[in-house]
Amino acid sequence: MWMKQLRPLRRRRIPISQSKKTEYRTAYLFLLPSLLGVGGFVFLPFLDVFRRSFLQASGHVFVGFGNYRTVLQNEAFQRAAGNTAKFILVCIPLLLTLSLSIAVFVQQSKTYQKLMKTGFLLPMALPVASVAVCFKMIFDRHGWLNLFLRQFGGKGADWLSSDSAFWVLIACYVWKNLGYDMVLWLAGLSAIPKEQYDAAKVQGAGRWALFRYITLPQLAETIFVTGLLSFINAFRVFREAYLLSGDYPDKSIYMLQHLFNNWFTSLDIQKMTAAAVMLVLLIGGILSGEEFWKNCREKKEEQRK
């Protein structure tokens, strides 16, 4: 008898009403054109790219992982991948830190809050081409910066054809995207109850204590979203790099997009397909890892509650 009592109860399925089923069918019908478009123009081409990455371009002979080994041993790929990774590792922490600091300052400022919001959001409204042209006019060999330095006895420098080009690219990208991240931080900051700050101030908490123990923990979700979007957008830096230096820039800003563009021009299908598959797997693995970390953190918080 007691064994029967310990048997787990079966969950009863809650019946779905006919109106709900109709709503689901309608929703799926509206989604069907988009799903067909994504399947036809994204998934099917990627499957073809995946298939071609194991074949020789001429004759479609199966070569196994030969194309992948060729790409990994290619010096141009190593340089481009290293520069892209370096850009992401430098740019994302810098962008997140600056945008968060500015967002906190803007939120606490009451006198010039609207003016500062407009000033930091203005670069986001400008086209990338306009921003890149402005930076090129400043940092060109005969640009405004060298002209200013020569006025005071300086020699100037070739900023876009030396290792300094990397930091010019960082400055251009951060200045363009600072306002976007600031908006995300402001949305997260506005959701924090002011009562928590007031209670902490009554107990004698300083600014750093308020930021460390109230602001940062409450911004955990915003940190994840902002970091994820910044990581994805960082792979689009080709626009700025191309507009600053063209097809063959300085070696310090030779990115993966430059490499793919040059391979596409020479129709090097074998290298393009193998490198594309590796990048998709790498980015997918990183995004999956971030999602896994987020789920683990949420489970720990639920267990604490």
Automatic annotation (TrEMBL):
Query: What family is this?
Result: Belongs to the binding-protein-dependent transport system permease family.
| UniProtKB keywords | Cell membrane, Membrane, Sugar transport, Transmembrane, Transmembrane helix, Transport
Where in or outside the cell is it found? Cell membrane
**Which residues are in coiled coils?**
none
Q: State the name under which the record lists this protein.
A: Multiple sugar transport system permease protein
Q: Which domain of life is it from?
A: Bacteria
InterPro entries per UniProt: MetI-like, MetI-like_sf, UgpAE/MalFG_permease
Q: Transport: present as a keyword of the record?
A: yes
List the membrane topology term(s): Multi-pass membrane protein
Primary location class: membrane
Q: Tell me where in this chain the ABC transmembrane type-1 domain is found.
A: 81-288
Q: Which GO terms describe its cellular component?
A: plasma membrane
Its BP terms in the Gene Ontology are: transmembrane transport
Q: Which residues cross the membrane?
A: 27-47, 87-106, 118-139, 165-189, 210-235, 269-289
